[in-house]
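Subject: Predicted fold for Peptide chain release factor I, 140 residues

User T.R. writes:
Posting the sequence so we have a shared reference for the thread.
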Amino acid sequence: MIRVNAEIELDEREIQEDFVRASGPGGQNVNKVSTAVQLRFDVARSPSLPEPVRVRLIALAGRRVTQDGVLIIEAERYRSQRRNRDDALERLIELIREACEVDKPRRPTRPTLASKKRRLDSKQRRGETKKLRTVKPGTD
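User M.O. replies:
I've generated the structure tokens; pasting them so everyone works from the same file.
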């Protein structure tokens, strides 16, 4: 079991890993060894995730989630397969933790009377400054 937080634990069987050849640095090794990792996690059908977390996770992941609700994380930052696996798993866990946080709802506020007055006063002063810059006809 992979522990995400106090309430959520993922079963290792829910995560599928595919190994592909990575681009970038690695010398001849990059042409021979499949070090990049494609981690797949079925968000839509995962029994480990509560429904509100599932909805927020799909919204957070954006284009990384397929039409079927499968989250795909690609990791090819490192030259070794093990480090890329750890990186992909850590990114998945971090994404799920972020989805667990509920945003505080915004309460609309209104400007105070004093702030409205300050705004209008500054606009008045700015208008006066600009008015002094105008050249009146016949004063050339």
